[in-house]
Amino acid sequence: MFRLKVFKAISSYVIIAIILIAIVAVVGVLLLTHHQSSSSVINTTAPTSTSSSVSSSSGPVIVYVAGAYKAVFDYLAKQFEQQTGITVDIVPGGSFGLAAQISKGQPVSVFVPVAYIQAVELEGSRNPGWAIAFISDQMAIIYSNYTTQSPYWSQLYSNYTMAMQTNNTKYWYNFFYLLTTKFSLGISNPSSDPEGLYAYLILKMAGYLYANHSFDYFINLVKQNPNVVTAPTTADFVPDLATGKLDFTFSYVSYAISQHLEYLKLPPWLSFGYYPNETNWYSFFFYEITVNGLTLKIYGNPVYLYITIPLNASNEQGAIEFVKFIIDHVQELSMFGITPITHPLLFYQNESDVPSQILNLLNQGVLQYGGNFSAV
């Protein structure tokens, strides 16, 4: 009897223990499942939130570039996007016009103008105080095969050939006289596009050299020619050149090559190429432009293409990466008919204005110091 009671008591304890173990197991499973579910929610939502934040704060690298170099930067942008995954938006235009837009607060990451001193200083409060000259170019007179069908072509080309061979004043005078009076000619607005500015400087040089020191001689002929047209940028003339509606325009050698157009090369003293012996000669001539209501006297200097990052730039980190990419790939640009600067020149007024990543390139010897802006 006693044994039966003990057995029943033990059996009761065993059953209770089993029940307790079962309850603990069930509760443990429920807690574990809840924890995994919560972790899953956190792990799936956190990256989405972070990715969205990065995307909205960075965005594309917006590059304002001198219109004649759009083809160059389309090429570079594609390479950069493939290497980094960062989107690049290319916005072409006249350097002076783009600078005016930047000064008014338009979103931009990188600015690539010609004629740095004038263009970047026109950014006003967004002028970063530094820029890198990374390629040099030169002016030329651009035309298409249609131009050669003009009744005056043979006469013009004959004088051009003799002028280049002999540098005789008579042939140069005849060439510029025919160019400015017998052909349709496109000259971009010098107040928005440096190509137009360089065009008028070339005409002033030609007047001084070949028309009895008359600075405005050929400019006056242009003003009297009803077939001379203007546009905000030289790029606006390309369709008419390609179809024969326009005979000539002034532009850069690289632009003629990128657009598959013909061009007449100019001698060093007329081309604004980087020829050290001609720099003082270039600066002897000036032309006045008007930007944002201000009249500016612009003196001639070699055709450099500069790159900089305006103050309050959109996606500043992406902009710095893009600038570094350009410097790394500058030698590839010779395919466009431009001259890469092996060690690009960094100009700045105050070293403190230059981003540390750019100064590092100077310290590493990738860049060389070009001086302050008065040295340009």
Task: Note the topology.
Blueprint: H1 2-58, E1 61-66, H2 70-84, E2 88-93, H3 95-103, E3 110-112, H4 116-121, E4 130-136, E5 139-143, H5 153-166, H6 169-181, E6 185-186, H7 194-210, H8 217-224, E7 228-229, H9 238-243, E8 248-252, H10 253-258, E9 262-265, H11 268-271, H12 279-282, E10 286-291, E11 294-299, E12 304-307, H13 316-328, E13 339-348, H14 356-363, E14 368-371
Parallel strand pairs: 1-2, 1-3, 6-7, 6-8, 13-14
Antiparallel strand pairs: 4-12, 4-13, 5-8, 5-9, 10-11
Task: Write a structural description.
With 376 residues, the chain is α/β, with parallel strands linked by helices. The chain contains 14 helices and 14 strands. It has a five-stranded mixed β-sheet with strand order 7-6-8-5-9. A hairpin with a 2-residue loop joins strand 10 (286-291) and strand 11. The N and C termini lie far apart (116 Å). Mean pLDDT is 85; it is low at 1-11 and 13-57.
